[in-house]
Amino acid sequence: MRIGVHGIVIVCGLAAASTARAGSTQLATLGTAKDAFVGNLVPVGAQTLFVVSSAQAAVQSLWTTDGSAAGTSRVTGLPASGSWNMPDLFSPSGSQVFFRVRGASSAFDQVWRSDGTAAGTILLLDQRVTAIHPFGTGALLSSGSYGDGTWELWKSNGTVAGSTMVTDLNPTSSSAPGSFRSLGSAVLFGATPSGSVQALFRTDGTAAGTSQVFSSLSSDFFPGTYQSGKVLFVGNGALYATNGTPAGTTQLKVLPSAVGFSPSRASAYAVVSGSRVFFPWGDALWVSDGTAAGTNSVKSGFVSTNTTDRPPVMPRHALGSGIVFFALDSLSTACAVRPWFSDGTPAGTTALGTVCANDFANAIASGVQAGAVYFNGERELWRTDGTAAGTSRVATAAAGGNSPKTFRSVGARLFYVARYGDTATGYGSEALYETDGTSANTGRIAGPHGTGRLTDLSPSSGGVMYASYDLSNKIPTLHRFDGAGVFLPPSSGSSSSSSSGGSSSSGGSSSSGSSSSSGASSSSGSSSSSGGASGSPSSGSSSGSSSNDDPDPAVAGPASAEPTSTSTTTGGCSAARVGNDSVIGGAFALLAFAASRLRRRRRA
Fold first, then answer.
1. Contact 127, 135 (CB under 8 A)
2. Rounded CA gap, 544 and 551, in Å?
3. β-bridge partners, 186
4. CA dist., res. 366 & res. 407, Å (int)
5. Contacts of 424 (CB under 8 A, 6+ apart)
């Protein structure tokens, strides 16, 4: 039996019938002006804050949402910054978030804080800031006034009066503190007390409690904590462990010379797996457990090139007893970057088949979920369990691939952004996708799909929120997807045969599973800053106004579900209109007929 295009599939059951479910819900239209942009979806307590900017940041404002249309509203206007320099360095701390409002040049920065209300959104410091780090219920800052051209260590408790300099580490110049890392009740950071050599410091937020720990810091601190409260860093060409005191700082191993390799890459791409940290150094993958004996090169000989700002080896995700990493093992334009797995030993470090990640830009587009790593392989969705045999393509996209990116793990589900439409001849549009690792349960979520882009994606209340930018009218909208959606074909707007969120849909594919999350994927959106500031910005007077009054025309719109399939339910049977010619739909019709005959026999 075969059901034609726009046929009706009837699904009956002895219990309550399932129905095709609506897709994402539009929470608000974020402005009426064209060329608006939404970014920095930052969870703060039970709400999510974000920024709406339009006309190249000539008009911008702070918004809040609780995931509902009624709870989505404009908080207040923010000073214009220009040239798409949207507010950044968002650093949540308790019930408030600190952030930077940038200017058209480095001569204009401001430090703000917000608790999600207009009254609680205030300008703290009208001065430059290069780093913000949560500390207690407030924040530490690398900040300085415009007049003297210096950056020093500041702190803020979220009030104007409580935003002050902690100490001046370089009275004759700028100490440029940065690379903040919490360790117990203190914070470690790098600063330049004199000359050009960055040193390691520790602070408890007071001048008396701020002191130098080590004379050289070549990179940011590595992720993870080792040996009862120690962290790793590179200094003087060696790997060190420190507990934040001079006596507790020890050298683990001298690292080999790596021409053209920046030490900051080692910490930027380091990945923690269990009690060990994997990191790149030169053309090799290294591992350390925080001891000298446990710090070693795992595999070397990857292609070293200075044509990219990324290392030949890029650790990405912890998986089982080791990590999945991407490595440049060839300069071939056909396939240069491939996925690898390492358990921390040379024998246990192997390539995962021959799939290409194409380049490091694609390799970055990866996420981990339920014992597997998902990545952009050959511009389609792939997954690996850490073995060559367990590395395979999840789903085949439309011609040209759909370039999955922006992976977010939420509970037992993995969401990501990918293209759809004519990706072979053009960029296509972007939409929200979901997968449980099977081809049947991988698909595009029903929702707003014009000629648009998804500009941000953030976990929220068991689902995700995302901002969509429509290229036809250049106006952004905010949406929520709670995990009960209908999968669509890769390149059309009609609903197809698979469904997510725990029930079967018209067409008969089973729902995504209930596998537990490994919890290793990192979420973006909130960015507590790190990274040391170096050099000095150009001097100049502050521009812009700190007034909250601005001509931002953004208006929260009403909620509107946007289902792309229609369904009705009558007498224990659900009827769903199917947009595809579907053999599976015919099978479901046969099942419905069989169920009806079975009920008649039971009544008899």
1. no
2. 14
3. 183
4. 6
5. 398, 399, 400
Residue 598's contacts (CB-CB under 8 Å, 6 or more residues apart) are 14
CB contact set of 28 (below 8 Å; sequence gap of 6+): 63, 65, 69, 72, 73, 477, 478, 556, 557
Q: How many residues appear in the chain?
A: 604
- Structure-block tokens of residue 247: 């006596």
Alpha helices in 311-470 (DSSP H): 360-364
pLDDT of residue 29: 82
pLDDT recorded at residue 524: 35
Cβ contact 251:298 at 8 Å: no
Half-sphere exposure of 95 (CA within 13 A, CB side): 4
Quick check: 281 and 301 in contact, CB under 8 A? Answer: no
Kindly list the averaged pLDDT for each block of 10 residues, start to end, along the chain of length 604: 34 28 71 72 90 76 91 91 82 94 74 96 92 95 79 96 95 91 95 89 97 93 90 94 96 89 89 95 94 95 65 90 89 76 97 82 81 91 95 80 86 84 60 87 70 78 80 80 62 35 32 34 36 33 33 31 29 33 37 43 43
Degrees to nearest 5, angle at CA 114 with 467 and 130: 85
The span from the CA of 354 to the CA of 346, in Å, is 19
So what's the pLDDT on residue 167? Answer: 95
Q: Residue 507's Cα: distance from chain center in Å?
A: 33
Distance from CA of residue 165 to its chain's centroid? 32
Alpha-carbon gap, residue 566 to 528, rounded angstroms: 44
**Amino acid letter for position 321:** S
Contact 355, 382 (CB under 8 A): yes
The residue type of 509 is S
Strands 405-410 and 413-420, by their bridges, are: antiparallel
Give 3-state DSSP helix, strand, coil % of the chain, rounded to 5: 5, 40, 50
Phi, psi angle pair for 91, to nearest 5°: -135, 95
Q: Tell me how crowded residue 195 is: count the other CB atoms within 10 A of its CB.
A: 9
CA 409 remoteness from chain centre: 10
Structure tokens at 338: 């491939």
* Host H or E run for residue 266: helix 263-268
Check if the beta carbon of residue 337 is closer than 8 Å to that of residue 363. yes
Helix (H, G, I), strand (E, B) or coil at 263: helix
Gap between the Cα atoms of 175 and 178, Å rounded: 9
Identify the CA nearest to 495 among candidates 16, 22, 1.
Answer: 22
DSSP state of 19: -
pLDDT at position 570: 31
Query: Number of helices (H) and strands (E), helices first, in the chain?
Result: 3, 44
Beta-bridge mates of residue 85: none
Q: Determine the pLDDT at residue 558.
A: 29
* Among 262, 266, 271, 244, CA closest to 253: 266
Biggest CA pair distance of the chain:
98
CA distance 585 to 11: 9
What are the backbone dihedrals phi and psi of residue 591, each rounded to the nearest 5 degrees, phi first?
A: -60, -40
Angle at 494 between CA 488 and CA 500, to 5 degrees: 30
Distance CA 253, CA 257 (A): 13
Report d(CA 360, CA 282) in Å as an integer.
16
